[in-house]
Design goal:
six-stranded mixed beta sheet, binds guanosine-5'-triphosphate, binds magnesium ion, single chain
């Protein structure tokens, strides 16, 4: 699996997505610092919410093969400025989380992520498993392709 850095506001579902991708039991745990779990780099929401801490995300992106910007389907507004993906020299994908939430508006969240510059968008629910297979296959499949190219 390619190494992915997950960024998004507090409560966007980064840690839960990490647990779902790893097939772990889901349990709430506030992320206090950047955590590397296998091929996943989980970050605290405060890094996305606070300009000064945001510089750390740019540096951590160098440790990843790609960056995932998370926006929950029930978020009231987006934290990502238009075209902000150009600040990162890695592929940036958009991940709409919590598609199962009762007040979910996944199309709106996807539009915000597109505006931020994400070309590829996945819509997932870590709770129901919706969309998880596609996201996981994308991360695994691309890894296999990269391996093939280098051998
Ligand atoms: N309904 C629903 N709730 C979810 C989903 N994913 C996460 N949650 C809930 O959202 C809350 C926050 O999830 P976290 O994964 O801790 O969010 P986070 O982005 O890691 O937050 P920070 O660590 O504070 O940055 C938890 O109560 C989760 O159970 C989902 O797919 N559906
Ligand atoms: Mg977390």
């Amino acid at each position: 699996m390619r190494r992915i850095l997950l960024a998004g506001r507090t409560g966007a579902g980064k840690t839960t997505l990490t647990q779902a991708l790893q097939g772990e039991r889901q349990h709430y745990r506030k992320t206090q610092t950047v955590e590397c779990i296998g091929a996943l780099i989980d970050t605290p929401g405060e890094y996305t919410e606070t300009k000064r801490l945001g510089y750390a995300l740019a540096l951590w992106a160098y440790e990843a093969d790609l960056v995932g910007l998370l926006c929950a389907a029930n978020e009231p507004f987006s934290l990502f400025p238009p075209c902000c993906t150009c600040m990162v020299n890695r592929e940036v994908i958009g991940i709409v989380t919590k598609t199962d939430a009762p007040n979910a508006r996944p199309e709106r969240a996807a539009a915000w992520l597109r505006l931020a510059g994400c070309k590829k968008i996945f819509a997932v629910s870590a709770r129901t498993g919706e969309g998880m297979e596609q996201l996981s296959a994308y991360l695994q499949g691309e890894a296999a392709e990269t391996k093939q190219k280098t051998t």
